[in-house]
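User: I've been trying to design a sequence by hand for this structure and keep getting stuck. Would you show me what you'd pick, starting by listing the structure so we're on the same page?

Assistant: Good idea, let's start from the same input. This is the structure you sent:
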């Protein structure tokens, strides 16, 4: 997924049965070079900040934040690859070119895989919360991502270590990239479907919560009948008659519990009407039944991820489809110049996801900011203590 050659290189690709694309043959303008260097610098700083805060904060040791740390790590790997690409194109660095040939097809696929797993994690967190809470842990998430990332790296780079392709030629094979990007399109489609399902599930749960939340208030008063009767007796020495505590409920007129006339009168605590048994579900909508418990933070994290990541998924399709269409255009010996014209603009726009992802995570996560403030205060206190002890 590097910058493609101009139209004259397409003709040479038609004549090359292996579809090898020379990386050093790329041409980028000075404006594109400055733009990409800026994206690399800003993106590395933002993603390193996310990775550092999530990794070293005990407040963020939940799978929903662990996935963001992993995504930030692979975003940094993606940006390192972009820096290597600039070194190869601008300075013709052969060592950087060999590393780039190995990383070019694999880093983006692992990033998409992590995003797909994060989407699946958010979906299970709101649909199967009880199972999720008892089965999913940070250690399990890290082990799963590590295994799948290693497996993805081995499979995608297998043509190199089996001798089918060579990193020393400093070329990318378009046939190899074609099949990898088809896999990326599958991951992108699965991710979009999962995030749409998350959005609909989260929206339905939030609407259900708001309906119950907007009910009129219910007043509950506990009255000690013994104390009231004792104060009303004419003589201080008289003993009060035995009586139980009383509970008084005042329901709104349109409440379903108000239909029972006994609910508006004082009753002994052990003689509550049957219509009061579901009082918790009526008055306190955040207390769900045992089979449908949900975590407000999990729902909010799922909805935020759907809104934040969906533009990234949508950017995946034009980039991947352009390379796939180019492959078939060259294979069928068609006119491919029009396909290459929008490519530099698509690629430059696509690079912005490395900045967009961490910015949207930090903007929508109050937990992240609390953890950042906590770490900053700890570092400041440690610095002042060290400075004072040195003086």
């Amino acid at each position: 997924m590097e910058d493609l050659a101009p139209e004259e290189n397409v003709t040479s690709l038609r004549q090359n049965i292996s579809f090898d694309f020379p990386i050093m043959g790329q041409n980028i303008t000075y404006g594109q070079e400055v733009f990409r260097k800026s994206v690399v610098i800003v993106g590395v700083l933002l993603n390193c900040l996310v990775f550092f805060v999530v990794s070293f904060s005990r407040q963020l040791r939940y799978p929903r934040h662990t996935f963001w740390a992993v995504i930030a790590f692979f975003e940094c790997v993606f940006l390192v690859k972009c820096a290597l690409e600039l070194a190869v194109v601008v300075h013709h660095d052969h060592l950087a070119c060999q590393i780039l040939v190995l990383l070019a097809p694999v880093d983006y696929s692992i990033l998409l895989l992590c995003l797909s797993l994060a989407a699946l994690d958010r979906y299970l967190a709101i649909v199967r919360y009880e199972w999720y809470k008892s089965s999913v842990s940070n250690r399990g998430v890290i082990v799963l991502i590590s295994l799948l990332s290693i497996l993805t790296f081995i499979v995608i780079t297998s043509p190199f270590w089996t001798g089918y392709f060579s990193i020393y030629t400093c070329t990318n094979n378009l046939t190899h990239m074609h099949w990898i990007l088809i896999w990326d399109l599958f991951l992108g489609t699965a991710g979009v479907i999962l995030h749409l399902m998350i959005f609909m599930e989260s929206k339905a749960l939030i609407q259900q919560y708001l309906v119950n939340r907007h009910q009129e208030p219910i007043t509950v008063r506990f009255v000690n009948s013994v104390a009231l009767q004792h104060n009303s007796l004419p003589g201080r020495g008289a003993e009060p008659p035995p009586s139980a505590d009383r509970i008084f409920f005042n329901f709104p007129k349109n409440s379903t519990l108000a239909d029972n006339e006994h609910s508006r009168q004082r009753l002994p605590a052990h003689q509550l009407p049957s219509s009061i048994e579901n009082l918790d579900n009526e008055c306190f909508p955040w207390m769900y039944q045992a089979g449908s418990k949900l975590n407000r933070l999990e729902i909010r994290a799922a909805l935020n991820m759907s809104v934040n990541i969906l533009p990234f998924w949508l950017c995946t399709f034009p980039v991947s489809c352009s390379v796939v269409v180019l492959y078939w255009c060259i294979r069928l010996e068609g006119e491919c110049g029009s396909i290459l014209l929008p490519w530099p603009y698509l690629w430059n726009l696509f690079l912005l996801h490395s900045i967009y992802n961490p910015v949207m995570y930090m903007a929508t996560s109050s937990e992240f900011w609390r953890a950042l403030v906590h770490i900053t205060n700890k570092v400041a206190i440690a610095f002042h203590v060290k400075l004072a002890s040195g003086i």
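That's my pick for every position. To get oriented when you compare it with your attempt: The radius of gyration is 31 Å. The chain has a mean pLDDT of 75.
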